[in-house]
Specification:
single chain; alpha+beta; Aminopeptidase; five-stranded mixed β-sheet; 5 strands; 24% strand
């Protein structure tokens, strides 16, 4: 049995990352049309992952199972204005595990690696957002100890 290997992503992983990103956003688009991607998001998603690979304030990790990229987590160190006591904080942009590999500890292993990365960068607070309509995400992040402190809302403006 091959173990799950968590490692820093590299440019060779980008095709697999794009596939996982599409799977994640296809799922979320069933919850709300706000998550629908453009017809071919390959270039902007490639650019996004390339930025995560090339800049120090971002982290991008993959989970390999049986030699195949089965999941990823994209993270960053963000900065609040000087008026806030907690200025630097970690942010989880996306955590995705391909559907056939879920509930095997891969998401937890990816998040644990992200926490180590945050700690090595002097971060003690981590924030994230998840789709309220996604019961798996809600449960995962609650079990991981996350508590809501802000509700993000939206409204479409009339175009008339």
């Amino acid at each position: 049995m091959n173990p799950i290997v968590i490692r820093k992503a590299n440019t060779d992983d980008i095709p697999a990352l794009i596939s996982l990103w599409r799977e994640l956003h296809d799922l979320h688009s069933t919850y709300s049309p706000i998550w629908m991607a453009i017809p071919d998001p390959t270039k902007p998603v490639t650019d996004m992952f390339t930025k995560f690979l090339e800049t120090q304030e971002h982290g991008l990790f993959v989970a390999e199972a049986h030699g195949i990229v089965a999941g990823f987590i994209s993270i960053s160190v963000l900065q609040r204005p000087e008026a806030f006591a907690c200025q630097r904080y970690g942010y989880v942009y996306d955590l995705s595990v391909t559907e056939p590999m879920r509930r095997r500890g891969i998401g937890t292993a990816l998040f644990d690696e992200a926490c180590r990365w945050f700690a090595s960068n002097g971060i003690s607070r981590v924030e994230l957002s998840y789709a309220l309509a996604n019961p798996s995400a809600t449960k995962f992040w609650q079990v991981a100890g996350f508590q809501p402190y802000l509700q993000r809302c939206f409204r479409y403006l009339d175009e008339s």
